Amino acid sequence: MTALPNIDMPAFPPMPSLPSLGGGSVAAMSRKQKAAIIVRLLQSEGDVIPLQSLPEDHQVELTRQMTTMRYIDHETLASVVEEFSEVLSSIGLSFPNGLEGALNVLDGSLSAATSSKMRKQAGFSITGDPWERIAELDVDTILPVLEKESPEIAAVLLSKIAVSKAAEILGRLPGERARRITYAVSLTQGIEPYVVQKIGISLAAQLDNRPPKAFETSPVERVGAILNFSASSIREDVLEGLEESDQMFAGEVRKAIFTFANIATRLDGRDVPKVTRDVDPAMLITALAAASSGEPGKATEFILSNMSQRMAQSLREEIEALGNVKGPAGEEAQNAVVASIRNLEAAGEIFLLTGDED
Fold it and tell me: What is the three-class DSSP state of 95?
């Protein structure tokens, strides 16, 4: 048997002495050391831990602590895990960290004015990842802030939110600005993470600085909703007055209004059975009988022509027996049909057409 050549092997560094459970080493460990052990264990099991949600100094301290540690034995690991489990099981309730965390928990309970005031008093202090908060905002909230920023800042924002939302924002910007922002996205490759974080904090502060809205819906939607259920004579009188004062606003209000007369042009014929099932039969017959001519008459014929022939014939007979309905009774019944359509639309069961398909 040939003897192996004598090779000088490099000496391995001495293994650090492992803590002894009997000597109370676990009890002597600092909380930072135990935290590093738990984090390392979870990572070794394939768990993704959102450490970025911790304050930056905590992330730095955890990283430094891990650089000073090498090995621990199974008994020590088991003891640390057991202690950690006991601490978790003893917690009855936890509270969010920082002002923003508290405001997120109380979202929907506090008034918008109170939340805004508290953020201002705190000097827009941001805890956690500001981009998570920005990503939750709708397009209408983000767009006004984005329009004032440079293309480079806008490019960072679009890169940090959902692709579908970024595409919608880009589609609502003027063509030239949209092209400049798109080009600026190509320049974000080498940007440092801390710069992106600072941009996020700045944008979040701007969004927090917006004055709270007293109304959740736009003036057009509010006026349209009121006129929807007003008497037709009052509705037309108000709209004529609006057109004299502000023709553009009046035009938007007319688009927002949905009355019985709009059914023929804005309701999909396939949705008629859903509407008729949802309306009280007596109200439906009264509404149809009250609309015998003009645009309302077209709505009546539209409804009858988009249901089974037998049901339509039965309704026609009942309408004829009821006779011509005029005045408040007819308008009340038509408003009931409109309310049913609006309720179905709000529930996502039907979708109204724009009325511009012709």
Answer: coil
Token pair 């309730």 is found at 93
CA–CA separation, 291 and 305 (whole Å): 15
275 and 202 in a common domain: no
Summarize the confidence of residues 135-152 as an average pLDDT. Answer: 85
| Each residue's pLDDT tens digit, 70-110 | 888 888 888 888 888 888 888 887 777 667 677 777 777 77
175 in any annotated domain: yes
- Span 165-185, pLDDT tens digits: 888 888 888 888 888 999 988
Q: Which amino acid is at 205?
A: A
Residues 6+ away with beta carbon under 8 Å from 185: 155, 158, 159
Task: Verify that 197 and 220 share a domain, yes or no.
Answer: no
Return the DSSP state at 97.
S
- Domain of residue 68: give its range: 23-81
Q: Which two tokens stand for residue 2?
A: 């040939």
Domains: count for the chain: 4
- Residue 53 maps to a domain: yes
Spatial contact of 193 and 201, defined as CB atoms under 8 Å apart = no
The reply to whether the predicted model has a pTM over 0.90 is: no
